[in-house]
Specification:
Helix content is about 35%, strand content about 20%. The chain is of the alpha/beta class. The longest helix is centred in the C-terminal third of the chain and has 17 residues. The protein is globular. It binds adenosine-5'-diphosphate (ADP). Adenosine-5'-diphosphate binds next to helix 2 and helix 3. Adenosine-5'-diphosphate (ADP) binds next to helix 2 and helix 3.
Length: about 240
């Protein structure tokens, strides 16, 4: 029996570094570490395996090939949904929306209030993880309106709302809603909208975003690994040509 050819994709994101090993059909191993710990992922790469990198640190990480995040997202999403029309990549430091019908890209990378960093900052304030903050939001019966478009001001809004007697669950729901509303402004209408990136693991965010958009979002298994998968697919395609 012929041995399967493996390839590796590494997504060196600005918040998290992700590695995927791909056997030509599916992900057979993966690992996610903090962004600055990307060197630890290299221990998992076997010799002879072609490596393609993507993400913010893609040029820094040793590689055979590199790929932009947009191309990696397209290749990764195509493995699950060849008929996707729009990709929303919900990252830690930026949010990208790619319309695959005309290749228009909308991006929020200037302001942390439109990214995962917004919820991370709020989670730190409450002394919980982002997953914990999302669970808190799910328990809310109601939500407060967070009007600030800046995460620094949002923080002072949180404090004053809690002082006025708002429940922390309602504030958590308000924070998720505020982020979802900001992201929704970048998203064009489409029948098949796919959400990927670490923040797509946050169910509260997905629910609120789909309510605001009036569309169900499609989320692949392990959405945070999709760009690394796209890179691995690219590595496999190039190694089979050589
Ligand atoms: P980047 O590629 O920009 O480094 P990622 O796509 O890896 O970013 O996403 C990182 C973001 O995902 C962080 O803001 C983190 O808080 C969020 N995240 C990761 N896992 C979860 C989870 N289980 N629940 C909620 N948010 C999560």
């Amino acid at each position: 029996m012929r041995r399967k050819t493996m390839s590796v994709g590494i997504d060196g994101g600005s918040t998290a570094a992700k590695l995927v090993r791909f056997d030509g059909r599916r992900i057979v191993a993966s690992k996610t570490v903090e962004a600055r710990k990307w060197p630890s992922l290299l221990e998992l790469v076997k010799k002879d395996e072609p490596v393609c990198t993507t993400g913010y640190f893609r040029k820094k990480i040793p590689h055979h090939l590199t790929l932009t995040e947009i191309s990696a997202a397209r290749l990764g999403v195509a493995r699950y949904y060849p008929d996707a029309e729009v990709i929303i990549d919900l990252g830690g430091q930026d949010t990208k929306v790619l319309d695959l019908r005309n290749l228009a890209l909308q991006m929020n990378d200037k302001c942390s209030a439109g990214t995962g960093a917004f919820l991370e900052q709020a989670a730190r304030y409450f002394g919980v993880t982002v997953g914990g903050l999302a669970k808190m939001a799910e328990k809310a019966q109601d939500r407060v309106d967070i009007n600030s478009t800046c995460s620094v001001f949002a923080q002072s809004e949180i404090i004053s709302m809690l002082e006025k007697g708002a429940k922390k669950e309602e504030v958590a729901a308000g924070l998720h809603y505020a982020l979802a509303r900001r992201i929704s402004e970048l998203v064009p209408d489409a029948k098949k909208i796919v959400a990927i990136g670490g923040v797509a693991r946050n169910r509260s965010m997905l629910v609120m975003l789909s309510v605001i958009l009036g569309r169900k979002l499609v989320v692949p298994p392990e959405p945070q690994l999709v760009n690394a998968l796209g890179a691995a697919v690219n590595a496999a395609a190039h190694s089979s040509q050589s």
